[in-house]
Specification:
InterPro entries: HmuY. By secondary structure, this protein is mainly beta. 5% of the residues lie in helices and 38% in strands. The longest helix has 21 residues.
Length: 464
């Protein structure tokens, strides 16, 4: 009988012990905060986002108050959603971790740049709390930020972070990020002095030249669909644009002023995983010059008539972008002096043996806006620490103009997965401002979230 009692007591003790050991530690507070404490813009509209530490289980209300300076609501500016009594009412949807609103200038209004709006998170629904960055000053002019911490939003829906649907453009001096769906465009027409066309590497695109100039004469008999496959050990670098962003090394040759020199290309607008799209989804394209711009001819591969689209150059942007499915130009990159870095998935390259380099799709690549005059340098912490690095440390630093100056070097995806803490980066923007920048997290193994990397940066030297 004593043995039975002792056994029962032991079972009860072990049950209690196991129950305690299975208890998860309480989650940290879920905090709502602006992405930065200051922001500037010079266009007609800007988006302001409030981010939470994590997703919410139920729709969560947030109210934001606004205090304009030298502005009157609905006279010089308005918001979406509309404000009532200088308060904007928002709601974070269930399963989401952010919400945003837009500020728009009224048409025909002239401003002198001294105008601003002070926003403040006034209240949030339980169990969410107000975080540190609870106030934001929006200036109606370009600003030169002293630096901030920011989380990039690469997730567009419920996709995995490793295949984040957004490319995210970041303007350091304005504390502004612009997420754009990778699948929203197919071709980029260069606005510089040269006549060049880029394909959408962020969508895993590939292209193949056909030795014909009559687009109607090109059919599926002129190529093998599998020849367009790239990634996962498939394809050649000749099928994709230059990974370092050299505009003279695009798959599509420079557009000649002599029409007869411009060949037809087969475009696989979406790929990267070692297979091409089905034949019915492939396009044939041909680009000609039209004055100082372009004319695009395009059709599905086995169509016997083609459509045309004229594209006009705009020197304020690196490229004019076209969606073949929409048959129209679309907005993608911000103006060339309004972004410094682009984060996201893209075709890149990998070594497949001695002397063998193949195209390969990478997540979390970081490209600089080299065509817009941005440069970057990597600094190892053995030479200087991030916190201590100052303007006096810039002597002897060599900046790179390659788009992939940062690339994938900032993180590890094998072994100890996470941000590499032994390095940080210097970014020189087109105005000569130099920022030091380091990545904080990007993966659950380093305390982050895949598809939403966190980074911080600080102004080291203001441009002349």
């Amino acid at each position: 009988m004593k043995k039975i009692v002792r056994s029962l007591l032991l079972v009860a003790f072990l049950g209690t012990f196991n129950a305690c050991s299975d208890d998860e530690p309480p989650l940290p507070d879920n905090l709502a905060a602006f992405e930065a404490t200051e922001k500037g813009f010079e266009g007609d509209e800007t988006e302001i986002k409030i981010v939470l530490s994590r997703t919410v289980d139920a729709a969560t209300p947030i109210s934001v108050t606004l205090t304009p300076t030298q502005l009157t609501y609905d006279t010089e500016f308005t918001t979406t959603p509309a404000a009532a009594n200088n308060t904007i009412t928002l709601s974070v949807p269930a399963g989401q971790s952010s919400v945003s609103f837009k500020v728009s200038k009224k048409t025909g209004v002239l401003l002198d740049g001294d105008e601003s709006i002070a926003f403040k998170i006034a209240s949030v629904g339980t169990p969410v709390l107000v975080g540190t960055n609870s106030a934001l000053k929006l200036s109606f002019k370009a600003i030169i930020s002293d630096g901030t911490s920011i989380q990039l939003n690469g997730i567009a829906g419920s996709e995995l972070g490793s295949s984040a649907a957004n490319s995210v453009f970041l303007d350091l001096s304005a504390n502004a990020q612009t997420p754009v769906l990778r699948d929203s465009w197919d071709l980029g027409f260069y606005n510089g002095t040269d006549f060049r066309v880029t394909i959408n590497g962020t969508n895993g695109a590939s292209a193949w030249a056909i030795n014909k100039t009559d687009i109607n004469a090109v059919t599926d008999k002129d190529f093998a669909v599998d020849s367009l496959a790239v990634g996962q050990g498939q394809g050649k670098l000749s099928l994709v644009d230059d990974a370092a962003g050299d505009i003279t090394k695009t798959v599509i040759a420079a557009v000649s002023a002599t029409d007869a020199d411009n060949k037809v290309y087969i475009l696989n607008r979406k790929g990267g995983s070692g297979a091409a799209l089905p034949l019915a989804d492939l396009y044939k394209i041909r680009v000609l010059r039209k004055g100082t711009g372009y004319t695009l001819q395009y059709a599905k591969v086995n169509e016997t008539t083609f459509k045309t689209l004229d594209v006009t150059k705009d020197a304020a942007f690196n490229f004019e972008f076209v969606s073949l499915e929409k048959g129209a130009t679309v907005d993608v990159e911000p103006a060339k002096d309004r972004w410094d870095l682009k984060w996201g998935y893209s075709m890149y390259f990998t070594a497949a043996g001695p002397g063998v380099i193949l195209p390969y799709g990478f997540s979390d690549l970081v490209f600089i806006n080299n065509l817009g005059g941005v440069e970057a340098a990597e600094v190892l912490t053995t030479a200087a620490t991030y916190d201590a690095f100052a303007e006096t440390n810039l002597t002897g630093v060599t900046f790179s103009k390659s788009a992939d100056a940062i690339g994938s070097k900032w993180r590890a995806t094998t072994g100890t997965i996470g941000v590499k803490t032994d390095r940080f980066y210097l970014i020189k923007d087109s105005a000569g401002n130099i920022y030091k920048l380091r990545f904080i997290s990007f993966h659950k193994d380093d305390g982050g979230e895949r598809g939403k990397p966190k980074l911080e940066y600080k102004l080291v030297k203001k441009g002349a």
